[in-house]
Amino acid sequence: MSAPTKQIIVTVCGDAGGASAVAPVIRALRSANGYAVHALGYAEARRTWREKDIEFQELSESTTLDDAAAFLKRTDAGLVLLGTSMNGIDLEKRFLKAARRLGTPTLAVLDFWSNYLPRFADEQGRLGELPDVIAVMDDRACTDMERQGFPRERLIVTGQPAFDELTALGKAATPRQRAATREVLGIAADERLVVFASQPLAALYGADASNPSYLGYTEQTVLALLARCLERIACRAGQRMVLWVRPHPRENPAELQPSASSRVRAVVSSQSDGRELALAADLVTGMTSVFLIEACLLGCPVLSLQPGLRAADPLPTNRAGWSRPVYHEEDMEPALESLLLDDAAPAAFRHRQEEADFAVSATRHVLALIEAMLYNLPVPVLRGSL
Question: What is the maximum span of the chain, computed from C-alpha positions, in angstroms?
Answer without folding.
Answer: 77
